[in-house]
Amino acid sequence: MTETPPTITAPGGALIAGPARQRRTRLVFLFPGRAAAVTGMARAPYAAPVVRAEVDRALATLDPPLAGRVHAVLFGPPGGAVPADAADPALFVLAHALTRLLADAGLTPDTVVGYGSGEVTAACAAGVLDPADALRLAVAYGRLAADLPPTATMSVGLPPEDVTRQLPPGVRLVAVDTPESCVVAGPEAELRRWERDLAQLYVTCHRPAAPVAGHPDDVPSRLGPVAAALVGVTPHAPRIRWLSSVSGRPVSADEAVDREHWLRQPLHPVRFADAAAQLGPGDRLVEVGPGGTLTGLLRQITPDLPARAILPADADGRPTPHPDPVRAVRALLAGAARRDSPHLPDQTEAGVPRPGRRR
């Protein structure tokens, strides 16, 4: 009996059949949080008409002073300062525009994950928030960040249970990045003392480039801008799987339509490692935003899953000058097709129907 050959379909939702089973390739979009914002991050993508239209439309809806600061983040010289109130809206504007660019090429996600405030963009991509509502919420988170005093942060190479057991006074857990790495925040003196103690135990610590804003005790009384932004917002049930970095699990329809989610979001640690643990074989990971921080974390958590940053940065964290997001995602999916089917020859990329292309 002759073995049935594999079936290859479009990489936007590729069905790749091996001799014994079929497997669907799923696109996962990862949206970074405010610490990923760098000046000049939209300079190269803005050349694409879809991105230009989305960015221009969003900037036109903002108050002129804020629009000027967001514009400076998107298009300013690399290496400049990022105002606290502009990071969140600038990241949303760019990531949403990139999502539309990819969708225009037939590349749409099956799953979305947002890190911290990147959850707003993830919810928008999942159809939970309309773009205008999501932008207002991103602006509100930016105001909240600007209203809170900056706090020193530190990455600690320990599991979250060990970190929480050893937290010094005034220091809090703000993120679980991987099963073996967490981010904490607190007074500089306490972090320095703890860092010295951990070094004696051969625990690796690093200082992130950007501080976080405030302390949970400061946040509840300052959530006014967020509550105001939610007035009139009607969230919808997600159209695709949305993995929350608040809970670390898929968001149900009932949870998605609860506006209180966005008031709780700033109060809880980022559970990125838990959300990433929900990914599995067949998932192809795309970081939709500047740099490759989330891609790097996922290579530690799920090293077997192919991942790609579509706006990579150089060694100094500055955007590379000539990114091609659509080509990057197509290359990721074509590579997945070769990897997942032992019958598919290396040159098959040219024969795989690309999303958005007529045959």
From TrEMBL:
SUPFAM superfamilies: FabD/lysophospholipase-like. It holds the Pfam family Acyl_transf_1. GO terms for molecular function: fatty acid synthase activity. It comes from the Bacteria. The keyword Acyltransferase applies. One of its GO terms (biological process) is fatty acid biosynthetic process. InterPro entries: Ac_transferase_dom_sf (IPR001227), Acyl_transferase_dom (IPR014043), Acyl_Trfase/lysoPLipase (IPR016035), PKS_NRPS_Biosynth_Enz (IPR050091). Keywords: Acyltransferase, Phosphopantetheine, Phosphoprotein, Transferase. The keyword Transmembrane does not apply. Residues 30-341 form the Malonyl-CoA:ACP transacylase (MAT) domain. GO terms for cellular component: cytoplasm; plasma membrane. This is Acyltransferase domain-containing protein. It comes from Micromonospora sp. CCTCC AA 2012012.
